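User: Show me a protein chain along with its predicted structure.
Assistant: Here is one chain, sequence first, then structure tokens.
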Amino acid sequence: MSVNSAPYLRALNFRVVLFAVFTLLLPGSAARALDVSAPFTDPLSTLPEIIRTGVTLPGDAAPFPCSEDKDFSTSLTLAEAVDIALCNNPQVKAAWASIKIQASELGQARASYLPSASITTNRLQTSTKYPRQNGQDTVATGDAIAATFSWRIFDFGGREANRQSANQLLIAAISSHDAVLQKTLSNLVQAYFDAQSAQSELRTKMKNLEISDGILASARRREERGLGSRTETLQAATLHAKAALERGRAVGTNQRAQAILAYALGVSIKTPITLSEDLRDDKEIEILRLDDWLTIATESHPSIKAARAQWEAAKYKIASARSEGLPTFDFSASYNENGYPGQGLSAVKTQVTTIGISMTIPVFDGFSRTYKIRGAESLADQRRAELDDIENNVLSEIVKAHADTLASILNLQAADNLLNAAQESMNGAQRKFEKGAADISEILNTQTALLDAQQEHVRSLAEWRSARLRLLAGAGVLGRTFLHTTKYQREKISSYQ
């Protein structure tokens, strides 16, 4: 039995007419939101701009790139390390997907403003038999078409509250993504500087071992010429053995720091990473007042923004729950040809069109709505408490980081002076020892002082970098632009909020 194509053509024409009617009747904002050029991608324009353009970190002029694989045989810069980590971190990817998920939720909320339509076509065969009667059995074959159209034309704010709530949750998802970026940046930069500091400490221990070699050789020559004692030679040998031990420990520390950096980068821990040997930052240091940092954090930190948006979304959910107890008005239209859905063909050809407006008034639902409202109010209270807690945590971290930064600046300056003095003392002691004007005790004490000064310098530099980066991350403005500079101007940072 062949299928007649006429009903399907009529159904297609009816669908086209309905789409045109929907477009003409849409409100202005909804009509603009409807992207006819890409109806199956994002017809209601819910995806935020960053999905299309990418994420730009605070202070940067362009989004961070996810380029090709890095050649780790060359020196890895901090900017390259940041890009690699941000592109490989699974938490960043999950937060990025959360933005798209929440954009879909917003699309569903916006879709509630639009009408819905459906068309059903059926090829039916109805057999009628009259057992034990003289009536003639019949068999009817034909097409049945049913089209429905419904549109909620008015409610008391339920759809608007759901839309606003979805908007706020999308803002929260974007801010949460920014917070993950800040955390990832902070962890990566800390791992990078730790690896760089471990590398510097290893070089210091190796240099100290070389100095110990020279002292041991000089002590042996002095003993051979009768200018030194066996005791001095043994003391030099002890110093050399200790330097070798510390060099071995520094090798282990460096390997561990390299593995942590590789993990932060999202690459294999077996990847050999070469870092720059320059440990020093800009010597011109300027730190903002604590009040400025607290203001920046309150206004800019993505975790605070996300918590604030979630609180706003929870308040809109209260309005949505309350609106469910109010009347709604719906417009509906239907067209049925040759019967109704779920029934057989009519005895004769029929065409039934129904148009109407219905009003639904909730009367009683067993107090379900009452508890739903109470639950929404409690959720809003919970979100407000979470916002206060996050603000307190962020600001307390700012206070700690600011104090650590100021202290680290003073420590770094003192460590510089200590290192210069110890180096000059070591140079003078070596010259005196070679000429026989100093004994082994003086040279050993001088070398120990130099080693301590070098270790303090490396430690102070690491503490300074850690503190200033925690300060930026705590304020929520850590970006590649601020990775190397140590001059933070209030107006400049504020422009990236």
